[in-house]
Hints:
Blueprint: H1 2-21, H2 24-50, H3 55-69, H4 95-98, H5 100-123, H6 126-147
Helix pairs in contact: 2-3, 2-6, 3-5, 5-6
Heme C (HEC) is lined by residues 28, 31-32, 35-36, 38-39, 42, 65, 90-92, 96, 103, 106-107, 110, 136, 139-140, 143-144, 147-148.
Amino acid sequence: MKKTVAALVLASLAGAVLAQQLKPEEMIKTRKANFTVMAWNMGKIKANLDGNFDKDQVEAAANTVAAVAGSGWSVLFAPGTDKDIGGERTRVKPEFFQQPDKVRELGLNFRKEASELARVAATGDKAAVQAQFGKTGAACKACHDDFRK
Length: 149
Ligand code: HEC
């Protein structure tokens, strides 16, 4: 058990170091890719809610959203990534870097909703997924409204 914890701590430290080694343009590219993966998987859940509800597909998609949400992507918003650089375009607003407490609050809330979406998806209860999908989408939008151009 202790060994597992130590390995996990090491792995997350390695992750932090890795992210720090990325150039600013690589951070922008990576965070946009992360958002794209989440949007693709949210789209899959939406399609299942609108059409034939395949529990396994919804569960896999929700787990992916929750995993990306919990991947520690705030490190990809390091200084120097506030504007286009190295041919990589960004739509982040300057306010993102000026209001870290607000960003953290929205980020934590999003993480909570995404975890709950994964939990609910595992039950296969379509109505519950529908409700939690709405809350998760609202958490995406809350951040975009304030911090994305
Ligand atoms: C804490 C804030 C925050 C949350 C939560 C958040 N986003 Fe974003 N999102 C951003 C910011 C900031 C950008 C702009 C990134 C950039 O251009 O550098 C962005 C960009 C995007 C993009 C465009 C990516 C691209 O290639 O330009 C998509 C799509 C997206 N988000 C979808 C989502 C979805 C879906 C969710 C929820 C499942 C979500 N976001 C949650 C802040 C957030």
